[in-house]
Amino acid sequence: MGETYETYEIGMRDLRDRREKLVRLTKLTRLTKLTRLTKLTKTYETYKANGGYAVNLTRAIIEGWLKVEEPEFSIETFRRKHEVSPESSELYVTFNRLMAEKKLKRLGHGVYKQIKLVEPVRVFMNRERRLPFPLIFPKDFDTGMEMGFAEHVIIREGDVITLGGVKNKGKTLLCLSFCGENVDAHPVLMGNEYTKSIEDKTTGGLVDVPAPRFYNRLLNMSWINWVNGDGTDKFQLMPIKEDYAEHIERDRINIIDWINLDANQLYDIAKVVEGIKENLGRGIAIIALQKSDSADKARGGQFSKDFSDCELLLDQFGNNGDDILLTVGTVKEKTKPIEGKKFAYTIWNGVKILNFREVVKCPTCYGKGWKKSGNTSVPCDTCNRTGYIDK
């Protein structure tokens, strides 16, 4: 009986303790709510007295606003958006401190730029040497050999190959040849040459289809197996004719034929190629560009070379429109000097590369195609007025 009474007393004490804790917690909650309400009322009253501007600014609050702000912004727009008084010193003090810490940059005229914070990149930390990118260059159809200079060119992941060519001088053939030789790597094709929009008779909307000339060329390149066993394409055709950087497929071969810019924007080609390069990952890009006759650079001049890792230039060779002169331009990594070397070949039916060979300047006319004869000049019969002879 004594044990039962003692157990009862312990239970009652425990119950009384719990009731007292609950009463204290209720009072504390009411007090907290009242305190918060009082602070909120005072803040609102101060807000009204301050002319409708935010008060009690802190660096933490300002940095919180900056996290959701645009990379570049006007301080006046920023101030009005967050209702900060023009007389507030905290905003300007915080901005000055952030600039000193290289987190913010003043661009002038009240415009600021947020500086992206980056971490150092560790170099020697469980890394393996990366092998060159396994790219197969176009081949001579008769010999089955890659272009003669290809064995000396080293292409790395993230590289860009530019093809600067005169109009109708084989840029598309090289692009399709690169695609065909590397088709098992599932390359991506995009650009002005490959797709067109037609009206869908069923829906009345526009639908993208392969351009007829492009499709016929693929059929004529019958030695390439363009499809998988289930009939799907081994490559990926994208109906993209602008904003290429946004549509680059990372870690793959991206072939763009060709990039068209307005005449007054040719200098922008460097930014366009840079954007493409940044999105390649472990892939590469092959980009066709237009070039003027006999120019030593694609349109855009030096800007077209800035981000090119391997530059190939295409011109007409002699008087035959199907004969091409290929000049190796800038090559960032090679196993022997090849920059400036020239090669000639013939395009057959728009799809085959024939008689690929290295050529050098004619020793008779010195590359001019004409030689002196008395007081006049006559066509050079050593090189048939091409300016070059086979090496």
Write a brief structural summary.
With 391 residues, this protein is of the alpha/beta class. Helix content is 27%, strand content 23%. It has a ten-stranded mixed sheet with strand order 8-5-9-10-4-11-12-13-14-17. The protein has a three-stranded antiparallel sheet with strand order 1-3-2. Strands 6-7 form a two-stranded antiparallel ribbon.
Describe the structure.
This protein has two domains: 2-114, no CATH class; 150-357, P-loop containing nucleotide triphosphate hydrolases (Rossmann fold, 3-Layer(aba) Sandwich). By secondary structure, the chain is an alpha/beta fold. It has a ten-stranded mixed beta sheet with strand order 8-5-9-10-4-11-12-13-14-17. The chain is 27% helix and 23% strand. The chain has helices at 2-49, 59-67, 75-81, 89-100, 171-181, 212-220, 269-278; strands at residues 72-74, 104-108, 111-114, 160-165, 188-190, 195-199, 206-210, 236-237, 253-257, 284-290, 310-316, 323-331, 342-348, 352-361, 370-373, 376-379, 388-390.
